[in-house]
Amino acid sequence: MKRALITGITGQDGSYLADLLLHKGYEVHGVVRRCSTFNTRRLDHIYRDPHDAGRRLFLHYGDVSDASRLVTLLAKVRPDEVYNLAAQSHVRVSFDEPENTGDITGMGTTRLLEAILMSRPETRYYQASSSEMFGATPPPQDESTPFHPRSPYGAAKVYSYWMTRNYREAHGMFTVNGILFNHESPRRGETFVTRKIARAAARIARGLENRVYLGNLDAIRDWGYAPEYVEGMWRMLQLDEPDDYVLATGVATTVREFAEHCFGHVALDWRDHVAHDSAYLRPSEVDALVGDSGKAEAAFGWTAQTRAGDLARIMVEAELKHLETAKAPLAAVPEQMGR
Ligand code: NAP
Ligand code: F7E
Fold first, then answer.
1. From the candidates 26, 83, 153, 229, which is the catalytic residue?
2. Closest residue (by CA) to atom 36 of ligand 2?
3. For tag attachment on the chain, is the N or C end more exposed, with fewer CB atoms within 10 Å?
4. What domains, with CATH codes, occur in the chain?
């Protein structure tokens, strides 16, 4: 039985990756931050009581800011594959917390790579690199596009990208960068724009609120469906040689168009419900990200299947279903925190 360790297992991608690896017969170990409230909501459906025999999902407290913990954890688990998905992943928040973002999204990678080198260097390593690294460089972007990050988050990811390459070149480790363009789902964090809009469209349709405040509607993103992207992560670690790959749909959609899709799905006109708030603008914006994932298609046959219109439908449907089943609909995300 193969053994994998996932940092960021409680996040959107971590939870889908855990689903996938359990389905493939892996023993899955996840690193979870200690938190005063439960942060394992996305894992509820696969969690099994520690006293149950035969379980294959194991959760361990840990934090990528804590090098000694990573060393002991890697020595204890001795995984065949490590997926480093842990990050302060919110671009707008990275302007408020640039140092913390550098520590977690940047230095966290080095701590983990070093712990692997010390304990089991033959472990295969996946780094969650991001299209945010391309930043100001115009689309289409692929593996040879120069980086020009526009946020502390993007800069931290560029650092992690190069550390991942360096452990491959310097130590011969099997390390890969998956350079993933935006991918979304009903499990997306509530303050990312797709989830924020889908959630608002459903709540407005059910009469729970009337308006959603957004920032830049002109930004262009390449939005795919997260479960397809975690399959791509896994495939990268099954190749004969380590390399770096872009995963993207290749389709450009503006924030405005995504809002049109979501509100259209509940037969509403987005213009009646979307208002502007400059709090959601970024000090420096990434205007357009549209990827070319031809290299991934050629190397391991990966192509994105779901486009933005279908994604909007999937996300709004999930919000509507949630409202039907929730006893008391959750309160709106507080405005100032709803970056
Ligand atoms: P996410 O939902 O924000 O999940 C981030 C995960 O990192 C969570 O499990 C979080 O734990 C964990 N984490 C944060 N700080 C940590 C720390 N100090 N130590 C240990 N764990 C920590 O992000 P995602 O959308 O799943 O993305 C997964 C990875 O891919 C991230 O590295 C992200 O930057 C990158 N990425 C995402 C996209 C995308 O479009 N989704 C595109 C390209 C790259 P809590 O649950 O406790 O907060
Ligand atoms: O913003 C605009 C905003 O926060 C998308 C992360 O997963 O993907 C994600 O980063 C666009 C931006 O995602 C609001 O200005 C308008 O242009 O959903 P987002 P992101 O910044 O693209 C990359 C690939 C990652 O790696 C990151 O980890 O939407 N926008 N109005 C807004 N964005 C937010 N959040 N909230 C608004 O009200």
1. 153
2. 193
3. N
4. 3-338 (3.40.50.720)
